[in-house]
Amino acid sequence: MRLIRSIGTLALGVVAACSNAEPPMAPNATPVAPDGSLPNGTGVTASFTRTGYNVTGTATLVIDKGVAQLDFSPDFTIASTPGPFVYLNTDANPNRGQPLRVAALRARTGAQRYTFQVPAGVRYTHVIIWCDPFNVGMAQAVIPPTS
């Protein structure tokens, strides 16, 4: 009985500690109003892959004159977890590289669009869906180089 209570207490302590994890120290992207200047071009498309949670769909990124448009495909789906955020980064982990926190994930299924400003001179290589409360990866799409 005493061992069971100790294990239960330990498990509660671990869950509480995980839920208090610090999210990545990334600047927040500045959204662009729908009537603002939208980027031109076809962009690059990459398939999402699982880094911790089941995911399907693609991400298409267009960057033009400091404005980015990120579209998730209509078949996008991701497993449920608390606090998912969308990031762009130069690394697969938003705790490293040059991360930019785009926004909270709007929906776990279906097409969605994010339009925001990006800093000049950064070559983003990853679209990441990250669970901020637990500071763990959920899914990523590796952006192919543009020619």
UniProtKB/TrEMBL annotation:
Transmembrane segments: none annotated. Residues 41-144 form the DM13 domain. Pfam families: DM13 (PF10517). Keywords: Signal. Residues 1-21 form the signal peptide. It comes from the Bacteria. The keyword Signal applies. This is DM13 domain-containing protein. It comes from Gemmatimonas phototrophica.
